[in-house]
Design a protein that fits this description.
The protein has about 250 residues and is mainly α. The protein is built from 7 helices and no strands. The longest helix has about 80 residues.
């Protein structure tokens, strides 16, 4: 092709057709510019396609992480309901409405909540990696809900570790020596980790009553934040799937 152009230029110059040559030269430059623009456009298309493919792979992995988060939230919700059940039974026992047998699973009174969503670990920079502006905002909102829930749960755990457990030790209701039992016991789930009779005898103590009240407020806050986070989790998964299938 270049050889043909050179031959044409040579012929025009030999025939001294200056005006025709200028028109040809301009046309040749225009053709070169069009070729460059087409090459740039094709390159942009390739870059955009590569970016979209990379984003699709990323978002499919993100959906899997969010689904794992959903399983964690369900597990935490189940544990919070067990804690709530225990506190309600303790209250109704003190009011004389429930028998002592209703106060079981006392281990939950010292239980902290394990909360470690995998999505924030697997995709800490997700907001910057998503191409869609609307999806960026949705991810940012979801992570904000997660931060709020983490703060409330951390606050609950600190209260249990720094206030509840020390006070239970102070009033001598822990089953000392249980950890040295010859039986294969999981201390985290042992029903007799707390001595039931000794604990029930302490329930008239105003300090213990206030401690239980404060703890109840904190796990209630966890329950509310967790409910909101579960809703946002389902919404963000749906939005990503809709975006991928668009």
């Amino acid at each position: 092709m270049l050889k043909i152009f050179r031959n044409i230029r040579k012929t025009l110059m030999e025939q001294n057709k200056t005006r025709t040559y200028l028109v040809y030269a301009i046309g040749e430059i225009a053709l070169v510019m069009i070729g460059i623009l087409l090459a740039l456009q094709v390159n942009n298309w390739n870059i955009e396609r590569t970016s979209k493919n990379a984003e699709e792979i990323l978002l499919n992995g993100v959906v899997e992480s969010f689904q794992e988060d959903a399983l964690l939230y369900a597990s935490v919700e189940k544990e919070i309901k067990e804690i709530d059940k225990l506190y309600r039974n303790i209250y109704y026992y003190t009011e004389g409405d429930y028998p002592a047998d209703s106060v079981d699973n006392l281990r939950y009174i010292r239980r902290t909540v394990l909360f470690n969503p995998v999505s924030i670990v697997n995709h800490p920079n997700l907001v910057n990696e998503v191409l869609s502006r609307d999806l960026k905002q949705a991810v940012r909102a979801y992570y904000q809900y997660m931060d709020n829930a983490t703060f409330v749960i951390d606050n609950f755990n600190i209260h249990v570790e720094d206030v509840v457990r020390p006070y239970l030790a102070e009033i001598n209701v822990f089953n000392y020596g249980l950890q040295y039992s010859e039986e294969d016991i999981n201390l985290y789930s042992a029903d007799d980790l707390i001595l039931k009779e000794e604990f029930l005898n302490e329930l008239e103590d105003p300090i213990l009553q206030q401690l239980l009240f404060e703890t109840g407020l904190k796990y209630a806050a966890v329950d509310i934040m967790l409910e909101d986070l579960q809703k946002e989790n389902q919404l963000i998964i749906k939005r990503i799937n809709d975006y991928l299938n668009h």
